[in-house]
Write a structure and sequence with these properties.
Elements: H1 12-18, E1 28-35, E2 41-44, E3 47-53, H2 58-68, E4 72-78, H3 95-106, E5 111-116, E6 130-131, E7 134-135, H4 137-154, E8 158-161, H5 168-178, E9 187-192, H6 199-205, H7 227-237, E10 241-245, H8 251-260, E11 265-269, H9 271-282, H10 288-302, E12 306-309, H11 312-319
Parallel strand pairs: 1-3, 1-4, 1-12, 4-5, 5-8, 9-10, 10-11, 11-12
Antiparallel strand pairs: 2-3, 6-7
Bound molecules: ligand PBG and zinc ion.
């Protein structure tokens, strides 16, 4: 006797009946790049069909996203001027602060998550403040908290620190609470690897480091023991949601983390993952829609609750409000 596992795959109806991994566009977050300036809608060369928008060109895009049923946005800012300490990141009239206010006023239904980091704003492109040509952890975390507070004051619903300094979640939580923002969640990029999959993003955000790399603060993908401590530290410091990043090549980590922690786990399917799929699709080598959906289910199957993906808009179009 052998076991006939094919029995429950024998028709579309039975496959629909037994499938047990769910997917919905409610769980997607769509990243948007907002650039200081006027009349900009510029396609990002290395990320086909993703754009940098100036504020005055955002309305059309936001209307479309809203009509498509996209509910959550992750905002990245590209300032006109960069300096040593990334002043644009915490300026009251900085690009993210102004954009957040604009979206909150004109499109109040979006959930606004802001990326909290310095690399788009510093002249040297590192995610923190330099001291003797090295990124100083303890100086940086005061700035990171200040950036987070300025985003929340502008109306951000969730802040997402991506700098990978130690102790930043505690600093942010303390500062937000001191200012009575007890109910604003922190979505921490807790498990973020130093990865070449961020290449296209650094084009998009003009944020590549001018010297060295990010290996002293982002994680080394040659380890399989150090990720839990990152998650635990952040949860103890007050993170409400944790992110694993990149996505697809790191599903082993997502699986482990999502079965071990009791808070929501987001996966960030990053720029390089998007661009690789797009490039193959443009060449007609793969079926884009089918590959993208297979990837989405793979991430859900590994245990991700939330998926941050540049494909969100396409997915919403394909599903056409069906899910
Ligand atoms: C900023 C930041 C990066 C990404 C998100 N936030 C780039 C980096 O760390 O170099 C990558 C996103 C992507 O590749 O899609 N710290
Ligand atoms: Zn950064």
């Amino acid at each position: 006797m052998f076991n006939r596992t094919r029995r429950i795959r024998s028709s579309s109806a039975i496959r629909e009946l037994v499938k047990n991994v769910s997917f919905s566009i409610n769980e997607l977050v769509y990243p948007i790049f907002i650039e200081e300036g006027e009349n900009i809608k510029e396609e990002i060369c290395s990320m086909p069909n993703q754009f940098r928008f100036s504020l005055d060109r955002l309305e059309e895009e936001l209307t479309e996203l809203s009509d498509l049923g996209i509910k959550s946005l992750l905002l990245f800012g590209i300032p006109k001027i960069k300096d040593e300490i990334g002043s644009g990141a915490f300026a009251e009239n900085g690009i993210i602060q102004v954009a957040t206010k604009y979206i909150k006023t004109n499109f109040p239904n979006f959930l606004i998550i802001t990326d909290v980091c310095m690399c788009e704003y510093t002249s040297h492109g590192h995610c923190g403040i330099l001291e003797n040509c090295e990124v100083s952890n303890d100086i940086t975390i005061d700035y990171i908290a200040k950036i987070a507070l300025s985003h929340v004051q502008a109306g951000a619903d969730i802040v997402a620190p991506s700098d990978m300094m130690d102790g930043r979640i505690l600093k942010i939580r303390e500062l937000l609470d001191k200012n009575n923002y007890f109910n604003v969640p922190i979505m921490s990029y807790s498990i973020k690897y130093s990865s070449s999959y961020y290449g296209p993003f650094r084009d998009a955000a003009d944020s590549a480091p001018s010297f060295g790399d990010r290996k002293t603060y982002q994680m080394d993908f040659r380890n399989n023991k150090d990720y839990m401590i990152e998650a635990i530290n952040d949860i103890q410091e007050g993170a409400d949601i944790i992110i694993v990043k990149p996505g697809l090549p790191y599903l082993d980590i997502v699986k482990q983390v999502s079965t071990s922690v009791n808070i929501p786990v987001a996966i960030y399917s990053v720029s390089g993952e998007y661009s690789m799929v797009k490039a193959a699709a443009i060449n007609g080598w793969i079926d884009e829609q089918k590959i993208v959906m297979e990837n989405m289910y793979a991430m859900k199957r590994a245990g991700a609750n939330i998926i941050i993906t540049y494909h969100a808009k396409d997915i919403a179009k394909w599903l056409g409000g069906k899910l």
